[in-house]
Structure prediction request, 460 residues.
Amino acid sequence: MENTLEKSAMSISIPKVHETEQLSKMLGSNAKPSREYEEQREIQENNGQMSLAITECIEKTQVKLAEIITHYVGTLNEKKLHFLGYPTNQDFDYDALAPLLNFHLNNAGDPFSGSNFGLNSSNFECCVLEWFANLWEINKGEYWGYVTTGGTEGNLHGILMGREKFPNGILYTSQDSHYSIFKIAQMYRMQCVTVGTLVSGEIDCVDLKALLVGHRDKPAIINLNIGTTMKGAVDDIDLVVQTLENSGFSHDQFYIHCDGALFGMMLPFLKQAPGITFKKPIESITISGHKFLGCPIPCGVLMTRIEHINSLSRDVEVIASKDVTITGSRSGHAPIFLWYALNKKGLIGMENEIQKCMMNARYLRDQLRDAGIGTMLNEFSCTVVFERPLDDSFSRKWNLAWKKNIAHVVVMQHVTIELLNNFINEFIQKRRIWFQNELRNPPCLADDIGAENCTCILHY
Prediction:
């Protein structure tokens, strides 16, 4: 169905080609066409679609620019109505921070020492870090961190510190880890060993032990997932530490980094959930700020034990600060967005939002199961995994993420019961047509989500 807003935005009267040629003759070869004429021709050349081309011949009028942005906002609002597969909270309001867009804010250098670039938000950044230090139970003076561009930069920094501590160390990470981990291993030219996973997506510590014993001569740098990308599985920190110890690795022979992109700040609010804390022998944690908290720009938080940053730190005279981050210049707006969100929500507000996400995720799981669709939901997770739709256009419409035989919905704050019902109803309707046309039964997903969650003819 065509976007009605898009149609209305495109209803602009455009001269026909022969009309423009006649106009050119009337004006003469040296005459300069009007701005309005050029803009109309630009739309015509793009088949009636709003052109984003940056032209050199004329400047776009303020009215024209506003029209383009208004049209774009309309398309985003339409897409938001079907945004289910990626863990970014779309339910936020930062209108109060609009005056800050009149400034370029740059947090260059160490947030704790500041810099000579006076237009910064280091004070906000340090407050955000203190909040997360309390969440993850590490005392002031024992931690260091900064606001990053997102979880991948946090992984870059955390694993780099592990490599600096153990230059000949081996990076161990599960096969369900985020793709950034394998990219980082390649960038740092680290030996990377991929560990198998359980059906849940959690790291398989039996396989981990066998691999550790086989490489006992080198230190271990472990990446743990506090919520895997596809299944939302949480690696058991305590079991991994026990596995390291049982494999002959003392605490001075391993470095554990935790990729907590989404669940790193959600689990501490869930009763009975495994603890994510620096009281355990972990060395660094990263989360994505734009996921659970919600932020209009990608950002994240990296926190580590302060003793690990010395090898990366050096004084830079031009900024009168220490260079210890992955990037030099960093967004000064991102820390303020995070600070604002943390203050606006409060601890009780965040706990309520988490409970709502978990409740709605269970609702989606139950509704899909009742419809005979193979579905899995890990404990302490809001990532609902199910059989991959046969029609990729359907998956694209609902912004579903998929991998091989499975797809998922990540139930965030903006995902309401009404939105889920719309998705469920369409999925069930389309699914009947797919299997009827294909003349086949639902696929077996026992290897992907477990036999108890599969709805094929063998397991349902």
About this structure: Confidence is low (pLDDT under 50) at residues 1-29. Residues 333-370 form the longest helix (38 residues).
